[in-house]
Amino acid sequence: MAVDIAVLGATGSIGTQTLDVVRQCLPNVRVRVLTGYGNLPKLAELIREFKPDMVCVKDEGTTRELEGFNLGPNRPEVVSGDDGLVHCAAENRSSIVVNALTGKAGLAPTLAAIRAGKDIALANKESLVTAGALIMTEAKKKGVRVTPIDSEHSAIWQCLQGNEGNEIEKIILTASGGPFRTWPFEQIENATAKDALKHPNWFMGPKITIDSATLMNKGLEYIEALWLFGVKPEQVEIVVHPQSIIHSMVQFTDGSVMAQMGLPDMRLPILYALTAPKRVRNDFPRMDFLSHNTLTFEKPDEERFPCLALAKKAITMGGTAPAVMNAVNEWAVGQFLQGKIKFYDISAIINHALKEYTVKPLNRADDVWEAEKWAGELVETCQL
């Protein structure tokens, strides 16, 4: 059966791998919508290959720039900006929206797609971090499915297949530990962006790779798991698993633990998000247990990686606190990537923001955007 999809963030890491999955494994999938901001030559190439009906770019200037590329004989409608992203997410020719956007920009398109009755394959964890209650409530109301693309949440979801009605005792969320897992505090303190971008197991975009180095990525995934699976904070345990073979586990009330395992390859959770519960044959590399015969686990060190503790603090504060934490982290990561602040300044700025912020209730998307505006005004006055 043919399926029409929209890919938001098509030129990024997850978007690129999503289109690779479509190319290799899903001949009946039609790509109706593509969005891309930073790589116009690549976006033009994708337009020629997939012939989408609609494309979104950064702004009107970028629209004119895109027109200068060879887009092939079937030229798509081109929209731009945040309004364009929302329009693309709600576009009525696609039935599944793959949200591979980075950062807080992903929330409005997620809500727009759900309200338009579309299933969401979600890689934009910030949507759930900042507005998980709104998203899951809207999805239930509209009867749409939110399927996770993150390897960890996909693993949990897969472990739960066939276990409907069996009570979860706890979720065991695994973390690679990032590039600084074995570094002492003094060495981490002077780490550069170049050091932090050397992830040991995964190929990802720069923002998520820095989040992995600080362990904020695991903090965001911790919050995401609470909303996706309806569990309490005390039911989520984080363990560092440097080999990244077990992607996460579920322990049931009888003590049994189910784990989902595989090589570190994001194409697997992407494929499952688009086809579940069906599993589609593919030619991806297979797991060889004789080559990967050592699996180890450690407790995360929240003193060397305080961003993980700050994410837990934000969800405990509740309301709009996670939105503030996420917005400040996004800004600080950008500053670190530009060499303007040091590694531990990221957590220091987030901690300062959470101390200064008065939490507001989260009842609508505007509450998130007001919290993000507050965070933006705060970081403009940061003195480091």
Detail the topology: elements first, then pairings.
Layout: E1 3-8, H1 13-25, E2 29-35, H2 40-50, E3 54-57, H3 60-67, E4 77-80, H4 81-90, E5 96-99, H5 107-115, E6 119-122, H6 125-142, E7 146-148, H7 151-160, E8 168-175, H8 185-189, H9 193-196, H10 206-214, H11 216-229, E9 236-240, E10 246-252, E11 257-261, H12 267-275, H13 306-317, H14 321-337, H15 343-356, H16 365-380
Parallel strand pairs: 1-2, 1-5, 2-3, 3-4, 5-6, 6-7, 8-9
Antiparallel strand pairs: 8-10, 10-11
Helix pairs in contact: 4-5, 5-6, 6-11, 6-14, 10-14, 11-13, 13-15, 14-15, 14-16
Number of helices: 16
Low-confidence residue ranges:
none
Give me the count of strands: 11
Beta strand %: 5-15%
Taking the sheet with the most strands, its summary is: 7 strands, parallel
Radius of gyration of CA atoms, rounded to a whole number: 20 Å
Helix percentage range: 40-55%
Distance between the termini: 56 Å
Q: Mean pLDDT score, rounded? A: 94
H-E order: EHEHEHEHEHEHEHEHHHHEEEHHHHH
Placed side by side, the strands forming the largest sheet appear as 4-3-2-1-5-6-7
Decide which structural class fits the backbone: alpha/beta
- Globally, the shape reads globular
